[in-house]
Structure formats: C-alpha cells, structure tokens
Amino acid sequence: MFKNLTKTERAWVLYDVGNSAFTMLACSLIPIWFKDLAIGTAPGQITSDQATAYYSISISVVTVIVAILGPICGAIADHKDMKKIFFTTAVSVGVVGCILNGFATSWVVFIVIYVLTRIFYSASLTFYDSMLNDVTTEERMDQVSSYGYAWGYIGSCIPFIIAMVAYILSGGLSPDLMLFSPQVGRIIGYAVTGVWWFLVTMPLIRNYKQYNYVEAEKHEIGKVFAKIAGTLKKIATQDKKVLFFLIAFFLYIDGVGTIIDNCINIGTDLGLPTVGQVIFLLATQVVAFGGSLVFARLSRKYDTVTLILICIFGYFCVCLYALTLKTLLHFGILAFGVGCFQGSIQSLSRSYFSKIIPAENSGEYFGIYDIFAKGASFLGSAVIAWVKLAGGTINIAVASLAVFFALGFLFLKLADRQPLQNQR
C-alpha cells in the first residue's frame, strides 16, 4: 500500500503507526498497571473506587489542558518553520515520559508522569493533523488520511503484543506464569512502546517541510489570543460550513469515543471473560485496518461527506445492535462492526476538515478541532452513567448513543449544504 504514496506522505502515515502504539497501551494496559500500583492496604495505597476516580480525574485534567493549549500552540506553530519545532518537541517529551513511566514505583508519580506524557502526546497530534495540508494535495487527502489510521491500527499491534507478553510473564494473568516482577513487565511494556513511537517518527521529522504558513509579525505572540478569538467569532458568525461540521463532529465523535472508552465496561457488565474481550479488541485493530483501506479506495470515487455519512449510519446500527448483546460472540460481532468504521470515520473527518479550512492557519484550526475531539465522549459517558444509575442495562445505555449519531448525521448534512468560505 505504501507504494502509492510519496516519500513525505509515507513519512506522515508512519507517525500514525508510532503514536497509535501509545494509544493502544493507554486503552488497555496502563489503567491495569495504575490500579496494580494504587490499590491496596499498605501506606499510601487507596481503594479501587478511589483509583478509578483519580484515574478519571487525570484524564479530565489532560482534556482541559489540551483544550486550552491546543489553539494557542497551533496558532504559534502556523508561523514559518515553527510547526516542525513544536511537533518534534512534543514527540520527544512524550516519548521520554512514556519510557520513564515504566520506572514509577508510586501511583502518585505514575499518574503525574502519565498526565504529562498524555499532554505532549495529544499536542503532537494537533501539529500532526495540521501537517496534512503540507504533505499531500487536496485530491489525495482522504486517501492519505485513511492510510494513516489503517497502518496505525495494524502497526500498533506489534509493540502491544510485546507489552502484553511482558504483562503475562510478569504474572498479569496468573502467578504461575511469572518469570519476572510486575515492575520489569511495566518497564518492558513502556520502553518498547516509547522506542517504537520514536523510531517510526524519525522519517517525518527528517522529511517534513512547512509550505503553508503565516508570516510572523513583531509582537505577534501577544496577538495570539485576539487572533483565536477572531477565528472563533468568524466560525460562529460567518463560516457556517466549519461551524456545522464541528457541531456534527462533536456529536458523532462523542459517540465513537464513548464506545471505545467503555468497551471493557460493556463486557464486564455482561460478565464476559476478560481474556476473550482483549482478544476481540486486538482483532478489532485488524478489522479497522481493513476498513480504513476500503474507505481509502472508496474515497477515489465518492465524496468525503457521503463516506462519513455511511460511517455514521454504520455506528447508528452498531448502537441498536447493542440491545441484543448477551454472549462473547455477540460482543465480538459488536467489535467487528465498530472496527469496520472506527478508523474511517476519524480519518475522513480529519481530511474533510483540512479541505474546508485555510491551509496557512491549519495549526490554529486543528487546535480548535481537537477541542471537539478531545472533549468527546464526556456527554456519551454521562448518558451511560445516567442510564446505569437509573437501573437500566448496559445494552440500553449503549443503544442510547444512537441519538448522538442521528444528530451528527443531520448536522453534517447541514454543513455539506453551506458554501465553502476558505477558497484554495
């Protein structure tokens, strides 16, 4: 598949392969490692409920900080030759933090390092997404963006499998399988992920050139906040295409994020075996790889909005299917359905947004875009919590998310009908 890409496009795609390794670790083993350190009766340790609460708070802290810093850093990075500097710094700090996290012996130190790592990891994605305008043409954006998610899903499996084996051999599943201590298992898992992340990022750092930029003026940094405020006002009052898309994106990505964040909770509430869930979630990465490639090919014939609408409808059906969930097989079918559209809906959203914003201000706009992306899933998670607290089943809770996809579908149709303000 790489043979159809230019050298710069290939380097850009590879970063998805690198950062997805950390994403996979964060969705699976990191919460487990945190609770292993935190929960207990020894001095300094806490209860399971407290551990869950503190972990959730840490994710919320990351979300708020990234939402505040994203547009600011993005606006500064839009200046000539700045984007590469910001991106390289974010990746470097993120990788170092990832490796150091494995050596933490206190849950407090663990969560502090993890929060810092997540902040720089998230910041790197803001700069990375905004690079799409520089690495390819508008006609190839859908295809290149889809390749990024596709190879990111399949590539992340390699370091994750190594980390998973280290977790198993450190007694993660059974004390009988322990060959070394849990601390060593964490060090191996984090180190493999960090090294992988750094190595596959090097081609992009070497080859990226910023073609779209704004010229820096004297005291420009002091005008950043006013500039962002002006951009937000423009989106709200003039650029209805961007406004309606961001509303649609927030709604349907909220649904996508909620399903991803709660996948283990869904299986646990159904009483399904953990090992079986992990296997199906790993298989979902492979399905997402194939699904992203299929949509990359479809993007050559069909417009981006039509393909995103298909993905939204697919997720809508997945939510309704959740009403039938009972067995591990049902869970596997649900995971398969999610995998078919997971990468595509994200990659096509990214490329579509790149097409409707001014290329020279892509960093600032993607900082705003990431507010909607990083803030996603909190409404959906609130819906799931409300349904559960009201005595409803996890099946009803997941099915309720169909509302987000229905509304997202409608707002995306509205966005598609608006004229393009940012002519290229």
SSE order and pairing:
Layout (H helix, E strand, L loop, with lengths): L6 H21 L1 H10 L9 H30 L4 H20 L5 H24 L1 H4 L5 H29 L12 H18 L2 H6 L16 H14 L2 H22 L1 H7 L4 H25 L5 H18 L6 H29 L5 H13 L3 H12 L4 H7 L1 H16 L7
Helix pairs in contact: 1-7, 1-8, 2-3, 2-5, 3-4, 3-5, 3-10, 3-16, 4-5, 4-8, 5-16, 7-8, 7-13, 7-15, 11-15, 11-17, 11-19, 12-13, 13-15, 14-15, 14-19, 17-18
Task: Write structural notes for this entry.
Helix content is 77%, strand content 0%. The protein has 424 residues and is mainly alpha-helical. The longest helix has 30 residues, at 48-77. The protein is globular, with a radius of gyration of 21 Å. The mean pLDDT is 87.
What are its keywords?
19 helices, Growth Hormone, Chain: A, 0% strand, 2 domains, globular, 77% helix, mainly alpha, 424 residues
How many E strands?
A: 0
Helix content: over 70%
Q: Can you tell me the CATH architecture of the largest domain?
A: Up-down Bundle
Percentage beta strand = under 5%
Query: How far from one another are the termini?
Result: 29 Å
- Unreliable stretches covering 5 or more consecutive residues: none
Give the overall shape, derived from the CA principal axes: globular
Rg for CA atoms:
21 Å
The tally of helices reads 19
Can you give me a brief rundown of this structure?
The chain is mostly helical.
